[in-house]
Amino acid sequence: MTQQNTKKIALVTGGGSGIGRSICLRLAKRDIHIMVVDLNLDAANLVKDEILRDNGSADAYAVDVANHQQVHELFNTITKHYPIDILVNNAGIAHIGNIENTAEADLDRLYNINVKGVYNCIHAAIENMKSRKSGVIINLASVASSVGIAHRFAYSMTKGAVLTMTYSVAKDYINDGIRCNCIAPGRVHTPFVDNFLAQSYPDNQAEMFEKLSKSQPIGRMGKPEEIAGLVDYLCSDDAAFITGSNFPIDGGFVTLNN
Ligand code: NAD
Predict the structure, then answer these.
(1) Do the beta carbons of residue 224 and residue 12 sit within 8 Å?
(2) How far is the CA of 128 from the centre of ligand 1 (A)?
(3) Nearest C-alpha to atom 12 of ligand 1 is from which residue?
(4) What does DSSP say about strands 135-140 and 178-185: parallel, antiparallel, or unpaired?
(5) Of 154, 167, 193, 237, most Cβ neighbours within 10 A?
(6) HSE-up of 250 (CA within 13 Å, CB side)?
(7) Is 61 known to be catalytic?
(8) Model confidence over 45-58: pLDDT tens digits?
């Protein structure tokens, strides 16, 4: 661990790619020490190196958020020396299919990463935050959390759970100085979207990218940096009055798409 004692610490899961990477880079610019946590250590290390090149400070760790023991071991190691001031539960995966195309194993996999992964991290961080009467938790949900998305049965279901988990945690710890909020992005252009297009439309990926972009009410997909900007705000003292809230950031997807 390389951080200096005076810096705040943010732990970002799924920090090696897409939205998580942008969140790490953005918070690092605020002089926050970043713990980049990802299943993919190479990806986490690349983000760490980017931060260090920009004179920030960061560490990288390989952890599967679905693994209760691994998460607890990492958080215990960190909190022996440092507080976790900010926890961003960003790691998540998708699955395409309605209920008939969702095998039990698919459902278990999505539940374990998208729901249990968030539970594991909050469960491992909460004691440290409570003992200091301070902490910020931000969970990455989705537009699917509130309205569901066609052919994304397991994804919608698990992201709905992330939203209600946010409300529950916010209520339980409001008197412990802990704020817990949720962000609900619409389509954001990351490897998550590229993988979906490559998988679903291997022969006309570029055309489908255009179509998907144009189908958003605002006429384009979001940028990871735009999500990172909202996370940055919610972590800051300017957001001290905000807890138990859900923030759609979706180019109008939920409210204007009818
Ligand atoms: P991404 O696929 O680009 O990145 C996800 C990262 O999470 C990867 O680095 C991956 O290695 C890591 N990861 C996956 N499983 C993990 C595990 N078990 N343990 C630790 N790390 C793991 O995805 P993204 O588009 O940046 O999405 C980030 C979050 O935002 C996800 O929770 C996703 O559901 C949510 N989201 C994305 C979009 C979108 O359009 N991109 C829209 C709404 C919500």
Answers:
(1) no
(2) 25
(3) 14
(4) parallel
(5) 154
(6) 22
(7) no
(8) 999 999 999 999 99
